[in-house]
Amino acid sequence: MIFRLLGPLVLADAAGAPLPVTGGPKVRALLVRLSLDAGRVVPVERLVDGLYGEEPPAGAPGALQAQVSRLRRTLPAGVAVEFSGAGYRLAVGDPVADVDVLRFEALAREGARARAAGDPVRAAALLGEALGLWRGPALADVRDAPFAAAQVARLDASRLDAVEEWAAAALAAGSDPALLVRELERPSREQPLRERLRALQMRALGAAGRQAEALAVYEEVRAALVRELGADPSPELSAVHLELLRGAPAGPRPAPPPLPAPLTDFVGRRRERERLASLVAASRLVTVVGPGGAGKTRLALEVGAGSRLPGEVYFVDLGAVPGSGTAGNGAGTATTEAAGNGAGTAIGEAACAGIGEAAGNGAGEGEVSEAFARAVGVRGEARLDVALAGRPVVLIVDNCEHVVDETAVLVRRLLAACPGLRVLTTSREALGITGEALLPLGAMEPESAQELFVRRAAAVRPGFTGHARVAELCAGLDGLPLAVELAAARLRSLSVDELADGLGERFERFELLSRGDRTAPRRHRTLRAVVDWSWSLLEPDERELAARLSVFRGGATADAVARVCGAGAGPLASLVEKSLVELRDGRYRMLETIRAYAAERLPDTDPAPAAHHAYYRGLAETADPELRGPDQLEWLARLDAEDADLRAALRGGTPDDGLRMVAALTPYWWLRGLRGLVAAPVAELLDRVTPTAELGEEYALCVLAAGLRDGAHVDRAQAFLASRTSPLRQPYTAFLWATAVGRHEGPAGDPASSRSPGAVPGLLLGDDPWSRSLALVGRALLALSATPPAPDSAEALLTEALAGFRGLGERWGTATALEGLAALSPEPLPLLAEALELFESLGVAEDVVDLLHRRAAVHEAAGDPGAAAADRARASDTARRAGLPAA
Questions:
Q1: What is the DSSP string of 667-724?
Q2: Angstrom distance (rounded) from CA 121 to CA 170
Q3: Which burial class, exposed, middle or buried, applies to 177 when counting CB atoms under 10 A from its CB (0-12, 13-18, 19+)?
Q4: d(C-alpha 326, C-alpha 843), whole Å
Q5: Residues 633, 639, 641, 644, CA torsion sign
Q6: Ramachandran region of residue 19, left (φ > 0), alpha (ψ -120 to 50) or beta?
């Protein structure tokens, strides 16, 4: 809710739409009086005086209470008048934001502080916003209220103070003097003896080249002071008069050329646009940094054209300036690059002229300075500082990455010399100047990327409104605007299905997106050219590291990068700074488009793939025993973060190495329910394996992970297990084989006490504490399946197993033992509840679903159908979210 008091009383909703204001004069006056102190308690006595004056009626507190009641009935939802022992309070969300008087006062204070701190550009913007809140005389329709006269006088005085502060700041920032003259005309006419105001009017007239009028103002004020007050002009006014006599300031400057106009509408990036506008208003140097094709230039131009930036806005395109090391890498000529950015304006022509003269001379500050100078309309870099000094100017400097050092030196010098200057740069690498504010720009939000695709696709295929695979396609393109637009353009000749399928091959994506805008800069015409440009700016050691980083599929920690790629922190940090790699939550990641490009440049003989397999196999083998101990959850989380690379590592190393890695990862995949995701890479590994008895157990686990339940692989694996005479290396093998494939008999005469669970007799478990506890669970199952069953013995075995699992701090075994005991207990619900909590902490969806159905049956047997239905509904929801078959 917005309360507008600086003019006629108006209430508006959050969107600015006016709302009706009802009630008589007293109700409206009460609303205004409370609004002036919104959020604060106003004592009853002050309200009575404000509404009724020096002679309030008898029973004034009661009359006030009646007016409050009437006011409450007229207020819209979300606004309340609260009462406490001290008085009444108008409760609003944010008083400064919701009441224009309070917002005016806050902006005016902040603007005055900014001017005092030496920031006239920001001061002028804040004070201009404050004065823009006035729509007419303050408290216009309640001026007859007793409280109004003092408040109006106070607000009018504050407004005049703000006008003077704004004019002083605008003059210091070099704003258009003609505008200042117009804005100061009315207050100067209304306050002819206010000397500071008239001095500012004189300065504005002099700056506009109207010296004679400025001198006439002085004579007018001098005569009025003598006539009205018998006084001489103040020293300030006299000093301005003397300045004018010595020589008037130069006349007005021509308006800057228009910014390059876009040919398409702007989609998405609402939060980034608002954030960038705020950064430019608050900081003198802002850099939009991100990978090629992220839309940095378009965002900067959108903010430059659509926001009220403080001062004149100029566009400087450095894309055509030759940078060191860019020759032959698609940088293009000056005229080609400028034409591709739509620089058919005076800015573009001037920049091209200056850059064309320097082409072929190598990168240097001279070429960059010349581009700056031509863009702001001066000849030669020597005049650049003079042209920008004393002016509020925003320079949008585009494509800095290939001349980042030269640009940084020049920008730093200009900012130091020109206090009214602000610089907004776009680059794949930050300038690295103290005080630089960064706006990282990466992928679009999924919904925005899909909207962008649909809009651009409709332009080439009329009637296109969407497709089921658009979301998949945009995700495969990393949500990069340029890649999405290039893909949409291909709908002239391809279907969405063909595009989405083609992205599956790393090289195919570059062929698919190989046709772009002919008039665009060469580095933006195809997806490959976008990455080519970034690649050409890398040092040799950075290129080597980037190629090796392509072996990582899910990002990597700094330790993993060092171990796999053999790289130090320096090149890695440089790749982050140059937007080839992003650092998020302690992990270094490449966008898939960049990773695919880098993978093309990894030599077949490079050691990185083998090192990648070795690193992740070592991680899997280290994690395996930890998954059966007290740190189980921490290790599961660590493996979750590395899951994509763990699966990718199966393709590296020898087939036997792959078998060992599958064996180590089997417990993790089981506990996390990832068997469906790993089936394909494991099946691929299985096709490369030559089975041997030595790795028979690992082979069997590979068969299970591939999702096979019968056939030659299963028969061979079962034979390997049946012939095994030594304990299992992986404690989970016996349980998983029995669960997935079923019973098969082992050698006769083996003592049951040394066997695996009853479902797979003949498989020897190890002597570690977890295996011993699992064996006790197996013996309990045998006791229950015996003829006759032995529940007492089974309960004793499960109780001992539970103690063993608890001693280890292992959750899955503990929950399994609890589940078994619940089946034998007259009070199963507490045991089932604890088991369910443990399974949920592990994220084992299958076990959670099974246990919920078991508990539902218990509730039903106990005569509680409501609880049973709740558990079954929860089981169905869990199965649906985990992608499990409906129970």
A1: HHHHHHT-HHHHHHHHHHHHHH----STTHHHHHHHHHHTT--SSHHHHHHHHHHHT-
A2: 7
A3: buried
A4: 51
A5: negative
A6: beta
Distance CA 122, CA 111 (A): 7
Q: What is the pLDDT of residues 768-795, one digit of tens each?
A: 888 888 888 888 888 887 788 888 888 8
Work out whether the CA dihedral 72, 73, 74, 76 comes out positive or negative. Answer: positive
Long-range CB contacts for residues 208-216, cutoff 8 Å, separation at least 24: 208/177, 208/178, 208/180, 208/181, 208/251, 208/252, 209/248, 209/249, 209/250, 209/251, 209/252, 210/181, 211/244, 211/248, 214/244, 214/248, 215/241, 215/244, 215/245
H helices of 230-269, in order, are 235-246
In degrees rounded to 5, what are phi and psi of residue 95?
Answer: -55, -45
Q: How far apart are CA 595 and CA 109, in angstroms?
A: 51
Regions of the chain where pLDDT drops below 50: 248-252, 324-363, 506-507, 512-513, 516-521, 523-524, 743-760
The two tokens of residue 146 are 């007793």
Three-state secondary structure of 832-875:
HHHHHHHHHHHCCHHHHHHHHHHHHHHHHHCCCHHHHHHHHHHH
Which pTM was predicted? 0.55
Per-residue model confidence (pLDDT) at position 602: 87
pLDDT digits 0-9 by tens, 151-184: 999 999 899 999 989 888 888 887 888 888 888 9
User: Per-residue DSSP letters for 560-619?
Assistant: HHHHHH---HHHHHHHHHTTSSEEETTEEE--HHHHHHHHHTS-TT-SHHHHHHHHHHHH
Distance CA 287, CA 826 (A): 69
Q: Rounded to whole angstroms, how far apart are CA atoms 281 and 271?
A: 16
Question: What does the alpha-carbon distance between residue 411 and residue 398 come to, in Å, rounded to a whole number?
Answer: 13
H-helix or E-strand spanning residue 438: strand 437-440
Q: What is the rounded distance in angstroms from the CA atom of residue 200 to the CA atom of residue 210?
A: 13
Question: Among the residues of 117-190, which ranges form H helices?
Answer: 120-131, 148-173, 177-190
